[in-house]
Design brief:
about 200 residues; mainly alpha; 2 domains; about 0% strand
């Protein structure tokens, strides 16, 4: 079993604790910070691999931030690294929610807190849009990718506007199914062309 240095494990713990502490808005808002911290700054994971991890984390059960933390923690620090990362990213939320629950009504009744939450909501929108823009920028601009991207965007906006209840999981499943269909059609076309050459 490979041994990982104490410094690496401590870096994992502190960086994930910091991200968990200062990221509001859940996993999607966290993606942009994760990319900056682990792809650009620490270079623990390549950009393409990170994008694949986020896609898998979004498609599998559980919050995207925790799934990403578990994967990156395992890649950098093995099983212990995945445990440390997962606990570290959850710990700030647990502590804050626990403290708020002790005096929730009094806390939410403060005007300053209400205004702070309004500001946080606006910041969360920016973080999610920023993550989406980075993914779009790094995406291969094939006709298929662009059709799926713009089709999904239009459907999500229309469903939101008209109040249609349609889970984002279905968008992922439909996108994955379309990608598989295009791949299978491509394989059939290649085989038929090889048959014609023979």
């Amino acid at each position: 079993m490979k041994k990982y240095s104490f410094k690496t494990l401590l870096d994992l713990a502190l960086s994930y604790f910091k991200i968990g502490l200062f990221t509001f808005g859940g996993g999607l808002a966290m993606i942009s910070l994760l990319e900056h911290e682990y792809v650009e700054k620490r270079k623990w994971i390549e950009k393409e691999e990170f994008e694949n991890v986020v896609t898998i984390a979004e498609s599998t059960p559980g919050p995207v931030a925790i799934n990403c933390a578990t994967y990156i923690g395992y890649k950098v620090g093995g099983i212990l690294g995945s445990i440390i990362s997962t606990v570290a990213v959850c710990l700030p939320s647990f502590i804050i929610i626990y403290l708020i629950s002790l005096f929730f009504n009094a806390f939410m009744g403060l005007k300053a807190v209400q205004y702070a939450f309004q500001g946080i909501q606006a910041g969360v929108i920016f973080l999610i849009l920023n993550a989406g823009f980075k993914f779009f920028k790094g995406m291969e601009k094939t006709a298929f990718n662009l059709v799926v991207f713009f089709g999904t965007s239009i459907c999500m906006l229309a469903f939101g506007f008209f109040g249609v209840d349609f889970s984002s999981i279905f968008f992922l499943l439909i996108g994955g199914g379309l990608g598989l269909l295009v791949y299978l059609i491509g394989q059939v076309v290649k085989r038929s062309k090889k048959g014609e050459v023979k």
